[in-house]
Design brief:
The protein is of the alpha+beta class. The longest helix has 48 residues. α3 packs antiparallel against α5. The C terminus is likely disordered. The protein is rod-shaped and about 100 Å long. Among the domains are: 50 residues; 76 residues, no CATH class.
Length: 192
């Protein structure tokens, strides 16, 4: 059966830590009593403290402190995660803007291109349309393909390498000129 939250806190050591902290605090001697508990206003009350076993009030206070410590710890962890997520989002935006500036006016795609060049990107076979000269240059490694804004842009090798430095995930295809034919990961029957 599942342990109660109190038992879990006791096992985790948080309550023990709180108890040790309390033991270090200076204690005030209890006020002299006439044997009867007294409420604010000076009137005695009978059963409120008598119904609790000895030490139960102390455990309730320790448990409350343990809850407060846990809540503070969780809040700090949430804030840390939110800060990290915000930082990652800022870095992504900066990379995207950097690539946008880099690619501005550098795409070599042609509207009248009639040769499809297939390649594998993100686990799927993708296609970019090129003309005959671009196809030869792409297969020779002189041109590369970059994925940006949902499109595949044909760019020079230099631009493709700069994109790789900024964000390697956006480089869709860049054939190694020293590799043999068909070493770009695409089967030869998909090339044409």
């Amino acid at each position: 059966m599942a342990d109660s939250l109190r038992d879990q806190l006791l096992k985790s050591g948080i309550v023990k830590q709180v108890q040790q902290d309390r033991a270090r605090e200076p204690r005030r001697p209890p006020p002299p009593s006439s044997g009867k508990p007294v409420r604010k206003g000076g009137k005695p009350h009978a059963a409120s403290h008598a119904a609790r076993p000895a030490g139960q009030g102390q455990q309730d206070i320790d448990l409350a402190r343990a809850y407060a410590l846990r809540a503070q710890t969780e809040a700090r962890e949430r804030q840390r995660i939110e800060r990290e997520a915000a930082e990652q989002a800022r870095l992504r935006r900066e990379r995207k803007q950097q690539i946008q500036r880099l690619l501005e006016g550098k795409a070599l795609n042609k509207a009248e291109a009639d040769h499809p060049r297939n390649f594998e990107y993100a686990g799927k076979i993708r296609r970019v349309h090129v003309d005959a000269a671009q196809l030869a240059a792409l297969n020779a490694g002189e041109l590369g393909v970059v994925q940006h804004g949902g499109r595949y842009l044909l760019v020079s090798r230099g631009i493709a390498e700069q994109v790789r430095e900024i964000d390697p995930h956006l480089l869709a295809l860049l054939v190694d000129p020293s590799a043999g034919a068909g070493d770009d990961g695409v089967p030869d029957d998909l090339m044409w």
